[in-house]
Fold these 2 entries.
Entry 1:
Amino acid sequence: MTSRRPSRTAKAQGQRAVSPGRPPKTEVAGRLQHILRVASAEFVNRGYADASVSRIAADAGVSKKTIYARYPNKDALLMAVAGELATSVYDVVMTAMGGAADGEPEEVLTAFGTAIATNWATPETIGVYRLFVAEAVRFPQLGSMYREIMARFRSALADYLREQCDAGTLHIVDVDAASHQFGMLAYGDIRERRLLGETVTEDDIVETVRQTVDVFLRGYSTTDPAGVHVGPSIAE
């Protein structure tokens, strides 16, 4: 009795079953985010000069070759860390603002202010901001990146304010300046306190944003708190 040899098709199927192949894109993306989180902690805790790619690789559980395959040098890794943080913060703030998009200006502005102030209070955001300030002279592109990040926030808020002016609920002559004013009122003091190492509580954020929205709407709303129309509504 002779044994049958497995067909070439069966062999090929068996080889495909055990071959690891390339990891899924989601797995690759998750691995890169993990590397950037580890690198962020390294840069924030040690500064750019003392940060070590070898230590980042060891802490992330990958090889230096893996990191350099994606980021050719430490400068590129630093820029990637900054870009990843900027994107994540922007997404969080825009999601919060979008969730309140159908509400009254008070609700939308409160959501926007709370989200951005909360992010400024986190150790990760304030740590990377310190890094930006410390290294901006050596790496001008960091300063440019920071300005671009903040411009995205101001632009998103300015677009909303412009819509409200067109709808007649707000009267703002310069919506770009107003969006900058709102941001500084909402997170300026919180950022300064965190930079000085002070603790900022959730209650601090809630009260700061409440006062910010109150002052802002008293200055730009077309109705007073009693609902009485008080001025023009078209942005000039």
Note: Confidence is low (pLDDT under 50) at residues 232-236.
Entry 2:
Amino acid sequence: MHALMRACVAVLLVGACQALVRPGRIVGGEPVPEGDAMWQVSVQTRTGAHFCGGTLISDEWVVTAAHCSVNFKAGAVQVAYGGNTLDSMKAVVPVSRIIVHERYDPNSMVNDIALLQMAPSARSSRSGTPIPLETREDLGEENCRVTGFGRLSSGGQVADRLMGVWVPLRSLEDCIKDFLPETYALTDGHVCAGGGREDACQGDSGGPLVCCNQNSTLRSDECNLVGVVSWGIGCATPGKPGVYTKVAHYKSWIEENIGGSVGDMEVTNAGGDITPSYKSNKKFKAKISKSKIRAEQTKP
């Protein structure tokens, strides 16, 4: 599987990988209005090439996916934010530190979460708006929104404008039925959303899934960060929801690593990591079928 991932990764970085399993995507969405989703971050190489999304959770920290970060050194990465096109970002800030979850497992995609610390001299709090973290682990069937600068179709054109789409949350039980036995593990640290013609796509990995008050705009006083775009099968594949790292499950891990609470929320002991135990629960065991699935990792 590792060789298969590396081969597909190499192709993806030149824009030609058209496979089934992918971390990231926005398909079937619409442009996000100027001033909305000001927590959205473009994670880039130092030459300005977008490769993943991220979310401002404070004036200093960005949360993203581990698979977006694990192969990079801090000096090779920057974050851009404060605009709804890649050319209109008001702040471009070098990353001074990368914290990948210590139990991230690329073979199962559990603990697919990382933190990026922005260099202090270049931060611009006026350009972006951090979003609060969701604290509830059980969310029900809410309608939430995923945003990003990723591809508009599987293997297709990259968006230069921030796109967003509403996607309904799915129960973990239904998500497991949709995916097994052909994919990665699904655990209590995941949340699923979508499953129709709207979804994230390659390049949206690491970006935000947010749930807001009904009919609200994408503003930080109306929305909470629920998930981090992790993986899925294709882009907007019927019957296959997108899979996200559940932020509430990692809230204590986030706050322990950034040295305090996020927003006005207290630090809670919510667990914070997952060690997959396939022996104790067989339905969480997910085998990779090399004949059907290629992993589209947005990493070198």
Note: The first helix runs from residue 2 to 12.
